[in-house]
């Protein structure tokens, strides 16, 4: 899609754009290793620090410093309570990277709405690339294994990170919707139509990702954005999307049958759960039990895998099966409860839950407040809608997933974009 601003106007955003582009690259040392995007995150943080030092200006308001620094308390306390110091140090670095340092760097680097729009457009471009690869995997049966067939679209993330492509596509779709709903002043009708086409195209790879959590989170976030942009418009768009979904599912042949079964399974997670749902419920119960035994500080950072078996019932399987997308069959160990809130509660206790989740809630409340102010002043709402939509998606998706895998840096970028809209100086948010 056409970029909303000229690339030459934003050389200071090169490290940020590099993180987005490198998300499509595989891990540097095999599964579980650091990625090129992680290395680019380090460069992004250093670049932001250098710009702040050179400017000599006060980089953050008191409110921004409090909200962005709040998670550090819970993370550090949980790291000190971990049984294995080496694991705790690794976990400390990862949590600070994703929830503090990279979001803070994004907040400091973005100067105005044009910078925000460029970052959003880059996310759309990445989603189109990953989505295109995913659709090809589905059509040529070269994707990850799903119900005995290699049809699950995973993009370049592989079978061991089946949520990676779904996450990228969901975020790109929401960015495209935001750019289309309320484009920048002077934006051409062609650019708005291009954004709408991108959003429509991204529905296809999202569907064939077979990710129930991503579907639910995207539906909730999209509805939120539509309602915030106008109730009448929301009703028209939702009716059109419902009709398009019926046509898409009906025209997809045998794959459509699997898609219908996957959609139906969303309402059957209580009455007839499959093994993946049973495992998830079992790990949720284990995480809750860990928290009840150590309610204030949890079992320590990265401590869930070590305490899982002692707190789980016999219903928990040995792991999930992964295969396809160029990888051989492998039993993937279940190392987290696949619920970010329960993971934080079990490992960091109430201290971590209040400081980390409290920071996210503060971003959402402040962001919605600024959106209302922008609406009252008749300012463009595209950045507000994108930031609110992305943060809503993340907070809903955290009920079904957590951090982990090559796509994790995208979580940090989402929090950074939301932080800019919610906490940046008022002058920057208005330009």
Could you walk me through the main structural features you see in this protein, from its secondary elements to its overall organization?
With about 425 residues, the chain is mostly helical. It has one domain (about 10-270, about 335-430). Helix content is about 65%, strand content about 5%. A two-stranded antiparallel ribbon has the order 1-2. Helix 1 packs parallel to helix 5. It is globular, with a radius of gyration of 21 Å.
Query: Mean pLDDT score, rounded?
Result: 84
Structural class: mainly alpha
Percent of residues in helical segments?
Answer: 55-70%
Order of helices and strands: HHHHHEEHHHHHHHEEHHHH
Shape: globular
* Terminus-to-terminus distance: 23 Å
Taking strands numbered 1, 2, ... along the chain, how are they ordered across the largest sheet? 1-2
Oligomer: single chain
Any idea what the radius of gyration is?
21 Å
Q: Helical segment tally?
A: 16
Number of separate domains = 1
Q: List the uncertain runs.
A: none
**Main beta sheet, described?**
2 strands, antiparallel
Number of strands: 4
Which strand-content bin applies to the residues?
A: under 5%
